[in-house]
């Protein structure tokens, strides 16, 4: 692990003491604190009034019971979470994750990261995150609907377009947002479009929101490559995951001439050496809600197409020049990073949140690999959510082209501000430090203005 400045050690010790066993939250806080030594050396005023301690403590944490009835008439209980982390920049904003691994530590790490990510977009949104340990996999539409309705029946009282605006994340897409928006509308008797983002296009959703995180990560990674006069054209690329972020990363990378040869889900990874057939992936994942292993069955074995089961290999064993981890946290280990480096990886753009372990990040940085951390590289999703809020507030609807152009501009600005901040603080090319410092300052300044709250 890296070093935390002496002045900040006590803050980290207190975070560990107060959040026992929440390993992912500790990891996310540690990474930011490691970057902040350089800031407090230049600006000791940020140590005043427990400002950093307050940034590490969520403003509010809500945990609730979610009872729902399945198709066999059995009552199931899940746990719902919403962590309203920081509202210095605007209403809490961040996705809802439905996955069996969800617990308060995961939601807290995501909310903490989200605060800095949202600040980096330059848009007026605070940080929050939520979700449930509910597993939508294998559930009927009716079961998912009943779960979403029960979840919203508690959560709605904590939301509002000026208070807290959730969106999707793992396991939460347009279907789940639709059920939750319908229930919110029914409970409140208000058509408050700006209370949720990632909505369907027929009821206040934004064009390009679905594509935004994957496209945004591709813009960011391309901008990193361009600092070394490189581009995607002709490069072999591996994208992990096969959900919302992965699919639209593949789409944009292909449009720039990159050859994406592998993607995955929790059952394993599929390789197509001549380049993945994206229409087929979309058919399997978006239409049928199937598994990536079906790619092999539909494409036929041989001809450089194969599938490796989870546990029998790592997608990062597949040689590539650009890696875009887009599934989940800590999916890319120090060992994976060494394999990627040995195989000649030049750039890594994190589509997922915290997908690389600290050991992996250190290995990439030591090897001179351009590394774009999730809180900067995947900020295109939330940025476009904020554009959706803008359209809702002005009762307007932008074209795909206008929204995408805005997204591209925001991602360019995020890239440049991380790059410039890294230079200003004496670590040129270190996007991790650049993102942490630039995001921190944007949150810290309004907090100083507000006094101790
Ligand atoms: P989806 O649910 O659409 O897709 C997630 C993908 O990752 C699926 O292929 C899933 O496989 C795989 N995956 C999830 N958990 C695991 C796991 N524990 N082990 C192996 N594979 C796993 O989610 P998104 O694409 O929306 O999100 C992916 C990542 O991007 C997350 O880290 C999320 O926080 C981050 N992100 C998402 C944004 C968005 O706008 N959606 C914005 C910014 C970040 P399976 O189906 O088998 O579970």
Radius of gyration: 21 Å
Write out the CATH superfamily name of the largest domain: NAD(P)-binding Rossmann-like Domain
The fraction of residues in strands falls at 15-25%
Q: Label the overall shape.
A: globular
* Residues in helix, %: 40-55%
> Which class of secondary structure composition applies to the elements?
alpha/beta
CATH class of the largest domain: Alpha Beta
- Average of per-residue pLDDT values: 97
Total separate domains: 3
CATH topology of the largest domain: Rossmann fold
> What topology, given as strand order, has the largest sheet?
9-8-7-6-10-11-12
Annotated CATH architecture of the largest domain: 3-Layer(aba) Sandwich
Name the bound molecules: NADPH dihydro-nicotinamide-adenine-dinucleotide phosphate
- Helices and strands, in N-to-C order? HHHEEEHEHEHHEHEEHHEEHEHEHHHH
Stretches where pLDDT is under 50 for at least 5 consecutive residues are none
| Largest sheet properties | 7 strands, mixed
Give the termini distance in whole angstroms: 32 Å
Family: Belongs to the Glu/Leu/Phe/Val dehydrogenases family.
Subunit structure: Homohexamer.
Organism: Paracoccus fontiphilus
Pfam families: ELFV_dehydrog (PF00208), ELFV_dehydrog_N (PF02812)
């Amino acid at each position: 692990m890296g070093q935390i400045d002496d002045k900040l050690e006590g803050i980290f010790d207190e975070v560990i003491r107060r959040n026992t066993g929440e390993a992912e939250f500790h990891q996310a806080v540690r990474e930011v604190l490691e970057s902040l030594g350089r800031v407090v050396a230049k600006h000791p005023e940020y140590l005043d009034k427990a400002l950093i301690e307050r940034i590490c403590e969520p403003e509010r944490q809500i945990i609730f019971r979610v009872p729902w009835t399945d198709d066999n008439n059995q009552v199931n209980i899940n746990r719902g979470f919403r962590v309203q982390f920081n509202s210095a920049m605007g209403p809490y904003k961040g996705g809802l994750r439905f996955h069996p691994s969800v617990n308060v530590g995961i939601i807290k790490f995501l909310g903490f990261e989200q605060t800095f990510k949202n600040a980096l977009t330059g848009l007026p949104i605070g940080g929050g995150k939520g979700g449930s340990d509910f597993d939508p996999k294998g559930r009927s539409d009716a079961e998912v609907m009943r779960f979403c309705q029960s979840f919203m029946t508690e959560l709605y009282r904590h939301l509002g377009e000026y208070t807290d605006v959730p969106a999707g994340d793992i396991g939460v897409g347009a279907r789940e947002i639709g059920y939750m928006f319908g229930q919110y509308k029914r409970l409140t008797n208000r058509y408050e479009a700006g209370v949720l983002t990632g909505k369907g296009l027929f009821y206040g959703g934004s064009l390009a929101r679905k594509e935004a995180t994957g496209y945004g990560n591709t813009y960011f990674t391309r901008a990193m490559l361009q600092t070394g006069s490189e581009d995607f054209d002709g490069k072999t690329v591996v994208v992990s995951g096969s959900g919302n972020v992965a699919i639209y990363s593949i789409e944009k990378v292909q449009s720039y001439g990159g050859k994406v040869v592998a993607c995955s889900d929790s059952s394993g990874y599929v390789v197509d050496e001549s380049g993945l057939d994206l229409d087929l992936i979309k058919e399997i994942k978006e239409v049928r809600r199937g598994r990536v292993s079906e790619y092999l069955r539909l494409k036929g074995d041989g001809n450089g197409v194969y599938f490796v089961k989870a546990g029998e290999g790592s997608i990062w064993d597949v040689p590539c020049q650009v890696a875009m981890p887009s599934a989940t946290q800590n999916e890319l280990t120090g060992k994976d990073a060494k394999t990627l480096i040995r195989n000649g990886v030049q750039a890594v753009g994190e589509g997922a949140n915290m997908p690389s372990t600290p050991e992996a990040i250190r290995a990439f940085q030591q090897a001179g690999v351009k590394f774009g951390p999730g809180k900067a590289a995947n900020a295109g999703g939330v940025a476009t959510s904020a554009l959706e809020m803008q359209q809702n507030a002005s009762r307007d609807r932008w074209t795909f082209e206008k929204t995408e152009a805005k997204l591209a501009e925001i991602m360019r600005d995020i890239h440049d501000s991380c790059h410039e901040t890294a230079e200003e603080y004496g670590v040129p090319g270190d996007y991790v430090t650049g993102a942490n410092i630039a995001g921190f300052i944007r949150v810290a300044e309004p907090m100083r203005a507000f006094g101790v709250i």
